[in-house]
Amino acid sequence: MNLIIDIGNSSTKIAVYKNRKIKFSLRITDLSSKELESWFTGHKIRNTIISSVKELPAYIVDLLTLNNSYVHILTYRSNLPFLIDYETPETLGTDRIAAIAGGCLYVKQGNFLVIDAGTAITYDYLIDNRFTGGNISPGIDLRFRALNQFTDKLPLVKKSREYSSPGQNTSDAILAGVINGVVYEINQYIRTFKKEQRNAKVIFTGGDSVFLKDRLAQKVKYMPDLVTDGLNYILEYNAK
After folding, report:
1. I need a surface site. Which of 12, 37, 72, 93 has the fewest CB within 10 A?
2. Helix (H), strand (E) at residue 124
3. Which of 6, 30, 85, 95 is an active site residue?
4. What is the pTM of this model?
5. 211: burial class by Cβ within 10 Å (0-12, 13-18, 19+)?
6. Residue 2: helix, strand or coil by DSSP?
7. What is the Cα–Cα distance from 182 to 223, expressed in whole angstroms?
8. Is 229 assigned a catalytic role?
9. CB 98 within 8 A of CB 15
């Protein structure tokens, strides 16, 4: 079985795969050596891949090396099922690489756009099996925090499905402005992409995707495990 560790900006997702199917998964705030060791108890882990958007603690690699036969740390130099056309590949987030790889599992042939709605919202394009780049904008919670931190009187609000629009109070005005703004942004990206690539697919993932997916006016393929699916695919590619 394969162990997948995806260390993001806000949390870490751990998953176990067997034959390209996810068997177990959980999301945690802090990854400790005790937490990591528990995943080897009762699971016959053979290969592991790590994707991290932050500095990787040394103990993680040491612990994994002791417990299983192959550990792969994802970088842009990894063997990938697509080519990278990016001016600064060394700055390309491994979460974005993994999401594109996951898209390759779903779209065997053809072009696609991956929208990952997390701490940041990323829009990444695969055209003719080449990653041609993408865009990054602030996610929902970042927008809430920015309005609170960079103004004197605006409150910090949390996501809610219930609000008036136009806002009838300041909290609703922020909720409507941020959430509607994100939805309008995503819809316009999809409209523009489909106008340019008529037969292309759009894949939607990320921590906020479950909150946003029913608000979109455009058709998307919702894949909540896209990044870990992609990491497992890349691990298979490199552990041969």
Report:
1. 37
2. strand 120-127
3. 95
4. 0.90
5. middle
6. strand
7. 19
8. no
9. no
Query: Omega before 224 cis (within 30°)?
Result: no
| 3-state class (DSSP) for residue 82 | coil
Strand order in the sheet with 120-127: 83-84, 130-138, 120-127, 112-117, 201-205, 221-222
What are 49-106's pLDDT values in tens digits?
Answer: 999 888 777 777 777 776 667 889 999 999 999 999 999 999 999 999 999 999 999 9
Cα–Cα distance between 59 and 42 in angstroms, integer?
Answer: 21
Give the pair of three-digit tokens for residue 81: 């099922």
Rounded Cα distance, 186 and 137, in Å: 10
pLDDT digits (tens, 9 = 90+) for 14-37: 899 988 889 888 887 776 666 666
Phi, psi of 115 (to 5 degrees): -110, 115
Rounded to whole angstroms, the Cα distance separating 156 from 145 reads: 6
Structure tokens at 208: 């906020």
